[in-house]
Amino acid sequence: MKRLSSFFLALFLLLAVTACKKDPPPVLNVSSPNIDVQNSQGTGTVSITANAAWVTTLTGTWFSISPSSGSGDAVITITAQNNLTSSDRSASIIITTGQEGKPNYLRKLVTVRQSASQLSLDVNSITFEKDAGSKIVKVTANTPWSVSIPSESTWLSVNPKTGSSSTDLVFSATANTGSDRTSRVVVSYGDTLRAIDFLQKRAANSAPSITVLSYPSNNSQSISRLTQCRWIASTDADLDNITYTLEVSDNSSFLGTDGKFLKSYNAASEISYTIPELLKENTRYYWRVTASDSYEAKSVSSVFNFVTGTLGGYIEGEFRVALNNSKGTYPNEIIFLGDGYTVADYVDGGKFDTDVQAGMDAFFNVEPYKSYKGYFKIYKVAAYSQDSGVTQLDKNIIKETAFSTVFKGGSSMESDSRKIYEYAAKVPGMEDTYTYDDNSSTFSPPRGKLENVMVILMVNQDRYAGTCWSWSTGQAIAICPVSTSTSAGTNYRNIINHEAGGHGFGRLADEYVTTANKDKTIPEADKTNLITWQKYGLYPNVDLTSDMLTIRWKHFSGREGYSAVGAFEGGYYYTYGVWKPETSSCMVFNEPYYNAPSRENMVKRIIRTAAGVRVNEYVSGILTPIPNDPYSFDTFIANDVQKSRSGAAMLFTKSVNPFTFVPLAPPVMLKVNN
Hints:
Number of strands: 41
Structural class: alpha+beta
CATH topology of the largest domain: Collagenase (Catalytic Domain)
Number of domains: 4
Oligomer: single chain
Number of helices: 9
Distance between the termini: 110 Å
Low-confidence stretches: none
Radius of gyration: 41 Å
Strand order of the largest sheet: 28-30-29-34-36-35-41
CATH architecture of the largest domain: 3-Layer(aba) Sandwich
CATH superfamily of the largest domain: Collagenase (Catalytic Domain)
Mean pLDDT: 93
CATH class of the largest domain: Alpha Beta
């Protein structure tokens, strides 16, 4: 009995100890949170460390694992399907142990990543000569691929036809005894195709027909030293593309040795070419043209000769000084460019020269420019256009020109400002000093001298229109068509006065009222815009007040000779809320007269530029005195030879029909972030 009691006591103690012992904490770890597998036959492994049973869940269907569950430590093998797409992909293995929501629950995530299929070819087209031959195409790939040649292309073969990695494909062509033959071969991998175009040249090829020369004609005399050679297009029996090479020499043997002249020019597919240099005076030159097809078959024209005269011309991009300044330490500079002028217009004394001179005459025919002409230096720069005239969108006329000038409709115009300034910078000293952000696609006008230089872009089109493009940093491009209109205010000279003399150099505002704004009051937004541009030093000829004690031109009040200066409502496109200083001026009907405050602003710029001091009276929008300012109002008054409108100007205004007159387009104003 005593022995039995001892047994039960021992059993009780054992059970008690067992009941008090706690389960060990759960353990679940993985060897890596990310597993990368190849796109083709991709496999991988991940090790699990665990002290209990675990199970897995997959978030993707493109791979499998083994084992998918277990107890304790294990190694899971991942087997992925081939990724035949062009995109990388990923999915997860979710491993858990214990019961969710309980203390023994653990969860681990393993991301399986598989790269995309990639295949590239080093070429996408191959040309075989007519003879049998082989060509190699390099394949760079990480995926299975195959090559497919069209069944009808029996002349072409490849080795190997399939593969699963990078290699060289050897394409072989049999000899061609017939015409050109082509084939498109496809290299496929997954759901992607790569094509290679093959051409084998024909067995026989016809050369282009002999080119017929047209100008200068044979034995012609007194040809301009700026010569454009022209010919009639050749034909090709095989319909091949034809290119031309022009040769010019001072000897009939076309030798270029021992000091002889021989130049060869690639004219591409054009049937004319301008020799890009001035030829010698009174010299006989020989020229011929070679026509070549895409198979290098050639035909050479007969040889023509011509004798140059003394007439020269402008080389593409050449600059010349049209007027030198005789006053001032520094000149007020203007650059004339032309758009829609072909090479024929650039002979000395030709249309380009004539139009520049007419523009200068118009500019300096009006005060104050007439009296201050000695302070100006004028340049002209040649820019050849392929076509004469320019694009007119409203008339569906398209032209290829140097500066891509466009008539947009009405009197509005635009051009390629970037290209314009590239040519303006050909004048020495006009180099752009600004450092640009290479990643920026936004045009920023050039800095340096060009900030205070006006460009006049003459447009070789007989049409009334014009637009001035101005930047807050001071640059201006006045686009001025060479209009021959005889209607009041619509001639080239009127456009020059308004766009170049008024907006471009004078930095004036328009003083007319548009049809759309007739009987309207200027809104707050336009008031703000006006004030903003006045703080950039522009628009001195309009104001938002009629109070002669505070108006911008108050200092003219009471001055002898300036009784015409006052406050006249209507300007800056609106009938009400804006005042101009005189009843009419160039900024209304393009008449050859600038009002007194406008003339003053022009003279300020002229005198300050000549002295090399700051032109703008505003600094960061604040009216700031100019140190050593050479401008004096009293001196301006003393030298202002035309203090009011002349009888001719008044007669001009009366000749304009205000109901039918179309004003020039408002200037395009562009702010530059410094």
